[in-house]
Amino acid sequence: MTTYDDNSLREDMVAVCRRMNASGINQGTAGNVSVRNPKGFLVTPTSLPYDMMRPNDLVQMYFDGSYEGERRPSSEWRFHRDILASRQDIDCVLHCHSVYATTLAVHHKTIPSFHYMTGVAGGTTIRCARYATFGTQALSDAAIEALQDRLACLLGQHGQISLGKTPAAALALAIEVETLSRLYVQALTLGEPPILDDEEMARVIQQMKNMSYGQAPDLDGVNDVARRKQ
């Protein structure tokens, strides 16, 4: 992270929490969000409805598991801590119980590359982590494993996790994971869909990387890309 503004970050986190519920990917007090900061990380408090949450309700935590303030951190603080500690490429962890992602998670189904947008999570699949009791180190370990080289995963019989550099980016990915989950559930009603091969998914992921760097996609090298009229 570059310049740090504690108040702005807290406001952004509360806004994203409320957007989680407004978008339909989360319900009630389920789900939680964390963001890295210079001290360690901020995390949403346990059992506080988002519409009642204020910026100063967010809990300052440290990577040794200690925290400041009167409110207790989310029961899932362990996987927030461990993911942020192990993934220097991201600064935000978002967890929610979106309906279609959770539908797949209760069947321990990994999302394959049935659609090219599966690549938004960084690979050819969106894995489903093995089940472990919520709030435990075992769940954190399972999430870390499923998130290897990925930006999102499902949690067996639980929900989903999406990662990002900012709360807004993590939320956007979580919504995309839910959309893909819904498409996959609906596609399965017609039978197992065809799967894009790894070679094609490598091209897709490269296209996505090019676009994230502000470059026009031109994998064929023909320079036939959209450009401003001179």
Automatic annotation (TrEMBL):
Q: State the source organism's domain of life.
A: Bacteria
What Pfam families does the annotation carry?
Aldolase_II (PF00596)
Q: Where is the Class II aldolase/adducin N-terminal domain?
A: 11-185
Cross-referenced SUPFAM superfamilies: AraD/HMP-PK domain-like (SSF53639)
Query: Which key words are in the record?
Result: Lyase, Metal-binding
Query: Does this entry carry the keyword Endoplasmic reticulum?
Result: no
- SMART domains given for it? Aldolase_II
Cellular component, GO, one term:
cytosol
UniProt GO MF annotations: aldehyde-lyase activity; metal ion binding
Q: Which residues form the signal peptide?
A: none
In terms of InterPro entries, this protein maps to: Aldolase_class_II_sugar_metab, Aldolase_II/adducin_N, Aldolase_II/adducin_N_sf
Any one Gene Ontology biological process term?
Answer: pentose catabolic process
Q: Which residues cross the membrane?
A: none
Q: Does the record's keyword annotation contain Calcium?
A: no
The name under which this protein is listed is: L-fuculose-phosphate aldolase
Q: Name the species this protein comes from.
A: Rhizobium lusitanum
